[in-house]
Amino acid sequence: MHKFRTRLLFGLLTLIIAVLIGLGILIGQLFQTYYIDTYKDRIKKEAELTETLVLKEGIDSTNLQPIIETISEQLESNVAIINSEGAIVTEALYGEKSPYYDRTLEQLLGDNRNKKKSFYEIRTEDDLFFYGMPIINDSDEEGFIVLSLPVSSLKLVNQQIWGLLIISLGLALIVILIIGVRITSQYTKPIESATQVAMELAKGNYKARTYENHLDETGMLSQSINILARNLQDMTKAQEMQQDRLQTLIENMGSGLILIDGRGYINLVNRAYKEIFQIDENSYLYKLYYEAFEHEEIIDIVEEIFMTEVGVRRQLMVPLKIERRHFEVYGVPIIGNSDEWKGVVLVFHDITELKKLEQMRKDFVANVSHELKTPITSIKGFSETLLDGAMNERETLTYFLSIILKESDRLQSLIQDLLDLSKIEQQGFELNIEKCDFKEILDEIIMLLEQKAKAKDINLNVDNPYHHVYLQGDPDRLKQIFINLIGNAINYTLEGGQVFVTVKNLDDQVVVTVKDTGIGMKEEEIPRIFERFYRVDKARSRDSGGTGLGLAIVKHLVEAHHADIFVTSHVGEGTTFTITFNKEGKHLLR
Ligand code: ADP
């Protein structure tokens, strides 16, 4: 950038120097000419005066010599009077005689005498200035006067003129130079700064700004550059914000998204897609879609969109490692304003959970119907048999009626459990939380189930050494939980077995363990026993009057109390359920 200023300054300087030199030469010449003219004029007048004196005395007069000498003395010049034959009549020399004087005089007279005119001549050999003038008396030429004097004074004046000129012009040059530097820097600085900023803008640094402290055109330039920079900065900011928003939206949307360009190359894969399909970005980005996608169905969708140019919505089941996941895939063609193909967007909604729920609902309906069908079929069968005549036999009648009663009880408890479950699962289900004494609750349950245990010759051991075990909870629901758990322990333990109920009253928690020495179950069954209608041993469950809904209800109620339930079991050894309650029971609303 300094180059511009230097070039401008250099150009200006060259121009000024040229002008000053030209001016110097012109002025010098003018001075010189003027001075020489004055000098010549003076000599001419002196020669005319001498002529007058010579004519007065007569060219051949012997009195002429002292007059000429006086004149020579006065004029500080050599004076020579030459007659019409060309011989020197009188001669007076001022100072030392130059070795060339005689020869020069002779030569000049030879050249000019016959021309009858005055002449000027500067002879450098003897550094003399000669002026010759014919002596005219009544228009007759009587001879010649030649005045000659040294040119040293001429040279001195010449030197002085040039010296003066050089000094004054040199000073002028320095002053012009200083002012020039100041003016150029005043004008070039804002331009330099503006150029610098423009270069920064070109590089993408939109924060660059220039000073705006000038009011002239350069100030306007600076202002315009700053406005441009500000606009660019605002524009890029807005664009970055837009880009960020889009990026955040694409990256954080719950569904997988893929963008394929018009030539079939994958341009964008969002985070959700990478997570769902567990893929590495490098194996997808800038690859052809049919090379990148592992699943034929997805390739088919893309091809269909490319061929038909219409959006496609389809549900797919995709095996991913050990899982099978369901997706609703929505693909749309991207067609530009001027009908050019820009590509395809694919959005993958993971609907596996929805599908699972749908399946669960179907299973539930099937299970409920099945569970209801069995006792109803049985009641219907026995009633028909009784009506067909069996009621006449008293023994059969009693037996059949007792079966009908048992099946009705099953139906009743099944419906009760279903109602309970649906109530608990309903949105807005609330527990009646209060400070309750778990000691009392457990005592009541034990009283209730003692008979049942005794009937099976099962020892019901309770380890609850506290006077009170207070916790925040819903007493009825807590009762329901432990009736189910202890009831199950009795149901799934063979005769003569043991059931242990242990309570630990800790600082913040109450830990209750229900342990039996029963039939137990395989480890892989454990996560499933909380599912509705899931039974490990169907026959035993039915015989004991189980509905298959007990543990599903327990799980919901435990969660509603913000408690944890943990199960360990071994086939033939027994099962342990451990429930840990938070005494404060915070956020117990469901
Ligand atoms: P059910 O009404 O059939 O007892 P639950 O939901 O209470 O239904 O229990 C689900 C299944 O879990 C039972 O059918 C049974 O196979 C198993 N189970 C529950 N408790 C125990 C236990 N203490 N010992 C062994 N198996 C159990």
Entry keywords:
single chain; 590 residues; alpha+beta; Beta-Lactamase; 5 domains; five-stranded antiparallel sheet; 17 strands; 53% helix; 21% strand; rod-shaped; binds adenosine-5'-diphosphate
Task: Describe the fold and architecture.
With 590 residues, the protein is an alpha+beta fold. It folds into 5 domains: 1-57 and 154-252, no CATH class; 62-150, PAS domain (Beta-Lactamase, 2-Layer Sandwich); 253-350, 2-Layer Sandwich (Beta-Lactamase); 356-424, Signal transduction histidine kinase, dimerisation/phosphotransfer (DHp) domain (Helix Hairpins, Orthogonal Bundle); 429-582, Heat Shock Protein 90. Helices cover 53% and strands 21% of the residues. The strands form 4 sheets. A 5-stranded antiparallel sheet has the order 2-1-5-4-3, sandwiched between helices. It has a 5-stranded antiparallel sheet with strand order 7-6-10-9-8, with helices on both faces. A 5-stranded mixed sheet has the order 12-14-15-17-16, covered by helices on one side. Helix 9 packs antiparallel against helix 10 and helix 11 packs parallel to helix 12. The protein is rod-shaped and about 210 Å long. The chain starts with a helix and ends in an 8-residue tail after the last strand. Bound molecules: adenosine-5'-diphosphate. This is histidine kinase.
